[in-house]
Amino acid sequence: MIEKESIYHPLPQPEDIPTREREDAMGGYLMMFAALAAGLPLPIINLIAAVIYFYINKAKSRFIKFHAYQSLISQIPTTLINAGLVFWTVRLFFYQSITFNEVFSVGSEYEIYWGYLIMVLIANLLYMIFSLVAAFNARKGQFFYFLFFGRMAYAYAYIIRDNDDIQFVNKPPSV
Amino acid sequence: MNSKIATELALLIGGFLIIWLVFIYVPLRPKAPEAALSIEQEQKIGSILIDAYLQKATVVTDSTVTSAVDQIYDRLLSGLDTTEYDYRIYVIKNEDINAFASLGGNIVIFSGLLEYADSPEEVAAVLAHEMAHVEKRHVVNKVVKELGISLVLSILSGGDVGFLNQILQQSVSTVFDRSQESEADDYGLELLERTEIHPNVMAAIFRKIRDKYSSSTYESLEFLSSHPNTNKRIKKSLNYKTKEGFKTRSLVGIDWQNVKNAL
Asked: To the nearest whole number, what is the mean pLDDT of chain B?
């Protein structure tokens, strides 16, 4: 029986991955924490930082590309729901000028807001825990797959493309 | 691979939606201030407070007035399925067009309101609104929030007279949140409908209060006190959709002119 040809590049093993690559892969997750703090009032800064980091590092190796991409795409929904929370809060307190006490009152119509707030907190907590674990794994030269995002990143970084072997050739200026 | 990606995406989105839903129904948030005081405690404190308040006020005892007010109150009470409050309605001599609910279901109506109202139904509208504040525990919410539970409870143990006056002041001049006012309006309108009094009378009395207190002072005060805009409240009352087959039943046996004369 002939094994079906894989459409993915083979995965490197930890001993194949140089320290430099491991550190760059880890950086993709860790720099989010710095950017997350900066992006708290306006949760878009961290996303911009993630995009920049990804584009700078993706060409270095597939291992780095995988981790940077996983970090980037897992950040998009996190950022969106955080932005939603900021928007909703500003709307409640400034636009509808709800007092702080009203939001706390029992039987008020703000249960949906409270549910969302707690959901966002849980999502951010999970995001941070998973990012940390992934960062440590990357440092050890290992893979760590997030739910959904892990598969997306694997498919993105390791799928075999037709133009994989095409190398860019530098040429002198035309005479 | 693709189907697994889809499954995991669904899991992720579904999981977070479930978390959101769960926390809508199990709200993890600070306890409401009113939860700290039981209704029995509130009623005990309320009776101490109202006694202290009435000592300084002139209570109207004329039977024409009190029986008319009692009749209005009885009608409204019939619209409450169950109530844990033992209401007490007092009429005091005061020119202001006003009424307020204090702790424990003690409601004070100023004689100015009765003089200014054209019908007992208009008084019923105000009373329904005040009863809504009591039923929804807005009064105790405000008092506990402003003064703290320990101060409020200190009355029960025969606390300081200074504190008593402070709490009294607080419970008399309570300014409710905008959402509380609009909740009380909604509840009041429903109560009127249930007791066969046309909810539109609420608009009539609001309009009178608005016109009496000249727009310049009233509107500016209202802005500060975060009341819902009076015009909006009037509109809400006028737009209130009564159920099909709704009929009004007048408060028979009250000669309103007689009541006014007796004041």
From this structure: 82
Identify from A73, A80, A101 which residue to disrupt to test chain B contact, counting B C-beta atoms within 10 A and taking the largest count: A101
Which of B8, B19, B21 has its CB closest to that of A122?
Answer: B19
Q: Which domain holds residue B240?
A: 37-262
What ipTM was assigned to the predicted interfaces of this complex?
0.78
Please name the residue of chain B whose CA is at the shortest distance from the CA of residue A119.
Answer: B20
Pair (B1, B121) in one structural domain: no
Q: Report the run of H or E that residue A28 belongs to, with start and end.
A: helix A19-38
B25: which chain A residues are within 8 Å (Cβ-Cβ)?
A: 111, 115
The model's confidence at residue A1, banded by pLDDT at 50, 70 and 90, is very low
State the pTM of this model. Answer: 0.59
Q: Confirm or reject contact between B25 and chain A (CB < 8 A).
A: yes
B32·A104 Cβ contact <8 A:
yes
Q: What is the pLDDT of residues B26-74, one digit of tens each?
A: 766 666 677 778 888 888 888 888 888 888 888 998 889 999 999 999 9
**Domains in chain B, number:** 2
- The mean pLDDT value for B161-184 works out to 74
